[in-house]
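Lab notebook, bench 4. The sequencing result for the construct came back, and we need a structural model before the next group meeting so we can plan mutations. Quick request posted to the team channel:

Model the 3D structure of this chain.
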Amino acid sequence: MSLCIGLTGGIGCGKSTVSDLFAKHGAGIVDTDVIAHLLTQRGGEAIEEIRAAFGDDYITEDGALNRAKMRALIFSDAAAKQWLERILHPLIRDQGQAQIQQLQTRPYVVVVVPLLPESPAFRQMVQRVLVVDCDESTQIARVIGRSRMGETEVRAIIAQQTPRAARLRLADDVIHNNADLDRLAEQVNVLHGRYLEIQNNP
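Done. Here's the predicted structure in token form:
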């Protein structure tokens, strides 16, 4: 069984960049955000259940989840957020586990799970937790730079996520992503060597 690393971090911390660097080292990558997008695109497995729970207003004309409308709802309604998670999380877990099985020939598998700290079920899927960390001002600048969101909306997302200190307490390993890509690649390289050692010497 390949070693499974749970990769997590707040919005804008650089999870995708880090997972891409691990992929270049030959790691298998399972990205739960990618799975969630597939589940909620037109014809996705979760669409009809979301429609039944939330109504047609939350499905676009072409049959996909209306992400902007749903994001606005779950920020203002904790019960709606929990309901959406009850629909999506079991499906994401099942597909994630299936992908992990398909990647058993890889030296190890990195499972990208933004919600890892608050999800015991996902934590059970991994043997180590890797947190990508950066300061809040860097997070905000990155998200504004890559999306249409303003600072207030980004701060609202950060406020709903697991606090930075709590994430770091869960970590077996931490990557600091306040500097440049070269520094990031160096840290990934070190961890790649560590994970190979753990995989080969269980």
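The CA atoms of residues 9 and 135 lie 11 Å apart.
Will bring this to the meeting.
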